[in-house]
Amino acid sequence: MPEDVPARLPARFSRRTLFAMAGGGALAAALAACAPGGSTTPTPTASASWMPPAKPMAFPQGFVWGAATSAYQVEGSVTADGRLPSVWDTFAARAGAIRDGSTGDPAADQYVRYAQDVDLMAGLGLGAYRFSLAWPRIQPTGSGPANAAGLDHYRRVVDALVERGIRPAITLFHWDLPQALQDAGGWAKRETALRFADYAELCFDALGDVEADWMTLNEPKTHAFVGHWYGAHAPGLRSPDVAAAAVHHQLLAHGLAVERFRESGAAGRIGIPLNLVSAYPLDAGRADGLARLDARENRLFLDPVLKGTYPDEAIGSLPGQLPARPAAWMTVQEDGDLETISAPIDFLAVQYYGVTGVDASGNETSIAPTSAATWQQIKAEGLYDLLMRIVRDYPAIPLLITENGIPDPTPDLTVDDPERIEFLRTHFQQAARSIADGAPLEAYYVWSLLDNFEWAEGYQQRWGIVAVDFQTQERTPKRSAEWYSGVIAANAVSAS
Ligand code: FCB
């Protein structure tokens, strides 16, 4: 961890911060302490007492089971076919930025091995594959005409998927901004949102004939906070003001891309993948702290996209807030932006990794066991609470879970991953439970298809259901992949 990391950072994002594990009692107390909330405060449910039924829980017919990756994490071939550096190439090359000194080259070599991977997916029975397009392959400097070789590659990937009956779920941006755009100011600048809209249009024109689920910008929160406030991800900046600008400009980019999507007449649907968290107060009497944290972690993204407003409590100098200067935050906003940002979308893509507690002062705290990714507090019921909260507080919209998973407990290459099976089983049960209670959940993508380059953790965290030997690039499905295959075949998850 960089030494000058500020003491108070959001747990979800301090990816190397070690939290003490809290016992189940703390969680039960937290849940018991929850007061019923209004529309601005998350309301935990009686989740803690829920037991899965003895019989398998069936999913609706047509439910989509998939797996996800992103370009920089799996592709490698960073100089092939005219690709130029992204912020991640630059950041990973910095001494000390990546835990094991690695970069996204060769990652899982998917740029070369995509056909083999599509066969692998078909073998597992996946109905959909979520992957991202690398902007620096398609527009190597972030603007101007398309690089045909870059687009041709993705055409081949999409065709291979469609041939095997696998629905493409295409993310336009998963954090790999062309370095040339960063040199011009990156997400601190409004211009980057305009460039993104042009890039998106090139992609819709090239691939829009395919029936796909398009996603605009992956987790704008993580990219803004970890990359621009915390400095642990590319571009490695540490400015809350710039982080706030990055929030707004990414959301604006999203809205502009949705407009271009409609104008392009592309087939399929479009939405945005937001990483959201269920937060629980340790002290019911101090719900204002919870409201601030919830505003920063969830409503700062959900409200503008689904309601066309920003919450008041997300930005400020109190615990749980993004400590940008309010004046800086106001400066980046222009009339009409929120209207653009709230352009109607076809689905909301939810990325769920866990829960957080909020202490009496409003700071995040540990309430559940973590995985090897110490920012991840595991609580499957939090998924149910999150989905039901979205149903309760926002206009009706189809929901897709586009990321959920855990890393192996150690960096060692293994195919035996009982923890992952247990994790997925309990989370699938909560998904089925939410559907039974009215959540319009249509799809579930496991993160990740393959072991890959896990950002600042390098190759030290293996999130795949398929093991990758990074020396030989050999792929071997883990036990969890076999188990997942069974779930897909049955379209149901069993109690144990
Ligand atoms: C998510 C990212 C994804 C991966 C998982 C573990 O926040 O979108 O790329 O790093 O976490």
Give structural attributes.
496 residues; alpha/beta; TIM Barrel; 8-stranded parallel barrel; two-stranded antiparallel ribbon; 16 helices; 38% helix; disordered N terminus; binds beta-D-fucopyranose
Compose a concise summary of this entry.
The protein is α/β, with parallel strands linked by helices and 496 residues long. The chain has a single domain, classed as Glycosidases (TIM Barrel, Alpha-Beta Barrel). The chain is 38% helix and 15% strand.
Give your account of this protein's structure.
Helix 4 packs parallel to helix 6. An eight-stranded parallel barrel has the order 2-3-4-5-6-7-9-10, surrounded by seven helices. The chain has a two-stranded antiparallel sheet with strand order 1-13. Strands 11-12 form a two-stranded antiparallel sheet. The chain has 496 residues and is an alpha/beta fold. Helices cover 38% and strands 15% of the residues. The radius of gyration is 21 Å and the shape is globular. It has a single domain, classed as TIM Barrel, CATH 3.20.20.80. The longest helix has 25 residues, at 240-264. Residues 70, 73, 218-219, 222, 275, 403, 447, 454-455, 463 line the site of beta-D-fucopyranose.
